[in-house]
Design a protein that fits this description.
Nucleotidyltransferase, domain 5; two-stranded antiparallel sheet; 3 domains; Transposase_36; elongated; 11 strands; 14% strand; Transposase, Rhodopirellula family protein; disordered N terminus; alpha/beta
Length: 404
């Protein structure tokens, strides 16, 4: 008599089959066993004799066995649990309302309760559901498991949307006139050395790149401060990598480098330049040095520089963030920034399917911090503020003679 273990490979294969394949596998096994095979297979699989006989008829048919368009006839199979228990979804939603965090108007919700805890709560309310069913119902209702994401930068006033529209209209006007529009910002300072860089990269299995255990700044080769200038119209940019401090002078020098390397060739003969910048940092709207050094640049290149700042708490909307810096971060993830040469090559090799091109250079200058811009220095600036939000929108014209 055949032992039960003889059927283990058959039962294992059967477990991964869909209902139609399983029926035919069972029928093939019954035919292989011969007399009494249908009863034997029915006993070890739990399939009814009718199901196995149907499979035998399909196998003995002269027609080719083709995959069906659907596994069951319309209306076949078990009814969905939500159809069997009409109050289930209502009770699930009530439970989620008690534990859901985030914006109630968002189409994507999330919860801190586990599917096991939710299933237990539903069971206590008389529903027969498993945690797998809860997971499926949550996904169908627009929930997902999510980690925290840094996105809140403080509240902004009601003028935010108006400023966004103004920046957009300014950019469109400049582009239509053939004048350059650039988005500027500084990426966070990086330690240069054999330190761990977040992310993963493809390498031979079991051969990770080894880096220092501790990120001691004193052991680093130096610091790298990437300040980027991005041209959204041409989808290209320049990154000036500083080695000392992220000052207003360094920010303006980065724009000067963009102009000398790219801008004056791309926009020969232009009379205006629009800079879209965040409201804080080295290019902040309240930073005197930023305006002072921009005046020097305007005098030098002989064009009017207009600046429009994004409102507080909205720096993530700056074009350079998601059109250039994000791709740089993706390109160097998991790679130690072991030298300045490595950083320049990683930034310069960043490409996208939409044709992003980036040029990177190293800035060896030592930028002094704490420079005081006096009232008389500011009085000599040829600056005119715009009627709308003058703190955020202003233009600096070149002076015929420069007073420093």
């Amino acid at each position: 008599m055949e032992s039960e273990v003889d059927y283990e490979p058959f039962l294992k294969a059967l477990s991964g089959a869909d209902p139609i394949q399983a029926r035919r596998f069972a029928a093939a096994k019954a035919l292989e066993l011969g007399w009494g095979g249908v009863s034997k297979v029915s006993a070890i699989t739990g399939f009814s004799r009718t199901t196995i006989n149907k499979g035998i008829q399909e196998l003995e048919s002269n027609e080719d066995l083709k995959p069906p368009e659907r596994l069951r006839k319309p209306g076949g199979g078990r009814k969905r649990v939500a159809d069997r228990e009409p109050n289930l979804l209502n009770d699930l939603e009530k439970i989620m309302e008690e534990s859901t965090a985030g914006d109630p108007m968002s189409l994507l919700k999330w919860t801190y309760k586990s599917t096991y805890a939710i299933a237990e709560e539903l069971q206590s309310r008389g529903h027969k559901v498993s945690h797998d069913t809860v997971r499926r119902l949550l996904k169908e209702s627009g929930y997902s498991l999510q980690a925290n994401r840094k996105n809140l930068e403080g509240k902004s006033g009601p003028e935010r949307d108006t400023q966004f529209r103004y920046v957009s209209s300014q950019a469109a006007k400049f582009i239509d006139a053939g004048d350059p529009v650039i988005s500027v910002d500084a990426k966070k300072k990086e330690l240069v050395g054999n330190y761990k860089n977040s992310g993963r990269t493809w390498r031979q299995k079991g051969q990770p790149e080894l880096v220092n255990v501790y990120d001691f700044p004193s052991k680093a080769i130096g610091a790298a401060i990437p300040y980027g200038v991005y041209d959204p119209k041409r989808n290209e940019g320049v990154v000036n990598i500083g080695k000392s401090h992220n000052t207003a002078e360094f920010a303006v020098e980065s724009i000067r480098q963009w102009w000398n390397l790219v801008g004056k060739y791309r926009y020969a003969g232009c009379k205006n330049l629009l800079i879209c910048a965040d409201g804080g940092g080295s290019n902040g709207s309240r930073n005197r040095g930023w305006k002072f050094f921009l005046q020097q640049l305007a005098d030098e290149i002989g064009i009017t520089i207009t600046v429009s700042h994004f409102p507080p708490g909205t720096s993530k909307w700056n074009k350079i963030e998601h059109c250039m810096f994000s791709f740089i971060s993706m390109n160097w993830r998991g790679k130690p920034l072991s030298s300045y040469e490595t950083i320049i090559k990683l930034i310069g090799s960043t490409k996208t399917k939409k044709g992003l091109r980036i040029e990177a250079r190293l800035d060896d200058r030592d930028y002094e911090t704490g420079i005081k811009i006096l009232d008389e220095d500011m009085a000599r600036l040829k600056i005119s503020v715009h009627e709308l939000y003058p703190m955020w929108n202003y233009s600096i014209e070149p002076r015929l003679t420069t007073s420093k």
